[in-house]
Each structure stands twice: as structure tokens, then as C-alpha cells.
Write a structure and sequence with these properties.
Elements: H1 8-20, H2 23-30, H3 34-48, E1 53-56, E2 59-62, H4 64-91, E3 96-102, H5 111-121, E4 125-131, H6 134-142, E5 148-152, E6 163-178, E7 188-190, H7 191-195, E8 199-201, H8 208-218, E9 229-230, H9 234-242, E10 247-251, E11 262-268, E12 272-281, H10 287-299, H11 301-311
Helix pairs in contact: 1-2, 1-4, 5-10, 10-11
């Protein structure tokens, strides 16, 4: 005779019998007839090689072997129930991890709202956040080391054509100065004015597109950029400008970081900067990434529309 293939129902049958102490009452509670229950319990005892229940005139009672079996059976059913819950939560993107690479200016917009909302709605998702220059972030995404990246401009390199990339912000160049600076109070500053000032800029090797745009704007032969103070990110640009080190040049999203002692000016002529771009590998999409994209959709309607165009309205 082939051995019994033990299933969760067999465990439930044994537990019901132990609870009701009677085959008829246990069968009624389980919604099955008594003979099949009696047969399943007998098969279970043959499978375990032990008598699990004493059948007496007073009722049916677990033996010592039965108590040991029932203890494990309860834990097994609890684990199975927990496994079902965990699987459902993972499928809904409520658990797991999300690896996000981003440039510092994304912390001005849109990341504060996006991460705040996502973390509030998915507290059990482990966020692994990595601030890095656009080139490094793009390379990490292409290497599978990140799930999603926010870069200045679309990622480039081998495999970039397989990424889904959508703009999450548009920027143009602005200037920031100390409130004690002669330009404070002006609505705008011209390129000629900038050429005569000490400048504060982001590292060219980190964001080459911005550096190229500045050189085009100021002129290749200008000494202004060659002698510029190089700041790590937009927050440092603002801080150094507040200290009176010079005129900080950066993206218009710096307007989201006002602080005492500084003044923002438009730069004329208006100079567009590369878009802030969200990218991910479609072939590596996970429920957690889909949940993150849903949060981005809620906070950035233009992104949702772009994703719908990319996927035909289907996630």
C-alpha cells in the first residue's frame, strides 16, 4: 500500500478530532461525512506508525504520540497560514527591498514626497538608498545593482536601450548669491555679469552635460569656470553662496531649498539643463518596483502619462 501523502487537510482533521473528542461532531464541524474522517485518521496513524487517538466509550482522546503530532500540526498550519499571508504581501509589493540610486538634487524634488508617501504606505519594504553621480547610478542600474535610478539625463552605455526612462523634472540654470551680494534683489543676472564673478559649480566629471552647457553659455575661453569653486552637490552650492564665496550656478529645483541669507536669480539667456530622469529595467520589474512606480504616478502625473504611453496603459 502506498504511503499517505500528508496534506494540510489531514492536519486539520486531526486537530478537529482532538478538539471535539468525537468522530461525528468533528466530521460535522469539518463539513464532511464521518466514514471518510475515520478512514483519513486511520491512514494518518498508519503513515506515522503510531496510534494517535484512543477510542473510548467516553470519547476520542489524543495519545502521547498524538499530543506530540498535534503540537507540530498546529505549528505547521500556522506556518502555512503565515506563508500564504507573506506570499500575498510580497505579490502586492508590501514587503521586499527597493534599491534606488539618485543624484542630490532629486532630494529637493520629487524624492521628498515620493519617499515619504512610499515609506508610509509600505513600511515593511526595505529601502536601500544610494546617492551617486548620474554616470555611476546609470552604470549600477545597467549592472543590475539598482532597481531604479534618478539621473540627470537618460542613462547611456551598453544596454541603456533596454531601459525604460521617463522625465520626472525639467530644469534650467539659475544663480544663487548671498543676500549681501551686489546681485541680491535682482530678478536676473546676465552671462556677462557671471563672467566677472567667482563661480560655484558642481563637478564636471559627475555631471558632464551640465558642465558642457556652462562652457557653452560662458564661452570656451573664459577663466570663470577654470577658477570656479567645485561643490559636491546643490546643497553645498547654496551653502557656499550663503557664505559669500561667489555666485552659485545650479538647477532651478534649488528654488525648493530656500534659506535665510540667500537670493536666487534667473540667468539670461535662459539655459535649459538636462531633464531629471527616472529609469528602470522593465525585464527586472518586481511587485515592489511596481508599487514604487505607482507612488511616483500619484505624485508626478506627467510620469504616469509617460509610463502609460510606454506600456499601453497596462502595468
Amino acid at each position: 500500500m502506498e504511503g499517505l501523502v500528508m496534506e494540510a487537510r489531514h492536519l486539520r482533521y486531526a486537530l478537529a478530532l482532538a478538539e471535539h473528542g468525537h468522530f461525528g461532531r468533528a466530521a460535522h464541524a469539518l463539513g464532511i461525512a464521518q466514514p471518510p474522517l475515520s478512514k483519513q485518521i486511520a491512514d494518518l496513524e498508519r503513515e506515522t506508525g503510531a496510534r494517535l487517538f484512543d477510542r473510548t466509550r467516553q470519547g476520542v482522546f489524543p495519545t502521547a504520540a498524538g499530543e506530540a503530532f498535534l503540537s507540530r500540526a498546529r505549528r505547521a498550519l500556522e506556518e502555512m497560514a503565515a506563508a500564504t499571508v507573506d506570499a500575498g504581501r510580497a505579490a502586492r509589493g508590501e514587503t521586499g527591498r527597493l534599491r534606488l540610486g539618485f543624484i542630490a538634487s532629486a532630494l529637493l524634488d520629487p524624492l521628498p514626497d515620493v519617499l515619504g508617501r512610499f515609506g508610509g504606505e509600505r513600511p515593511d519594504v526595505r529601502l536601500e538608498l544610494h546617492e551617486m553621480a548620474s554616470g555611476r547610478s546609470a552604470a549600477a542600474l545597467l549592472a543590475g545593482e539598482l532597481d531604479v535610478a534618478i539621473t540627470l539625463g537618460s542613462p547611456r552605455g551598453a544596454g541603456a536601450e533596454h531601459l525604460v526612462s521617463v522625465p520626472v523634472g525639467h530644469d534650467h540654470l539659475i544663480a544663487v548669491v548671498s543676500s549681501a551680494h551686489p546681485y541680491a534683489g535682482q530678478a536676473s543676472v546676465s552671462v556677462n555679469q557671471l563672467r566677472r564673478q567667482p563661480l560655484i559649480v558642481a563637478p564636471g566629471e559627475d555631471e558632464p552635460a551640465v558642465a558642457a552647457g556652462l562652457r557653452t553659455l560662458l564661452g570656451e575661453d573664459t577663466a570663470a569656470l577654470d577658477g570656479a569653486t567645485v561643490a559636491r552637490d546643490v546643497h553645498t552650492i547654496i551653502g557656499l553662496a550663503a557664505c559669500g564665496v561667489g555666485v552659485g550656478l545650479g538647477p532651478s529645483r534649488m528654488l525648493a531649498a530656500p534659506r535665510p541669507g540667500i537670493w536666487f536669480c534667473e540667468v539670461t539667456p535662459r539655459t535649459a539643463l538636462p531633464d531629471l530622469v527616472l529609469s528602470f529595467a522593465d525585464r527586472h520589474r518586481s511587485p515592489v518596483l511596481d508599487a514604487f512606480l505607482d507612488t511616483v504616478r500619484s505624485n508626478c502625473p506627467d510620469v504616469g502619462a509617460a509610463l502609460d504611453r510606454r506600456f499601453g496603459g497596462v502595468r
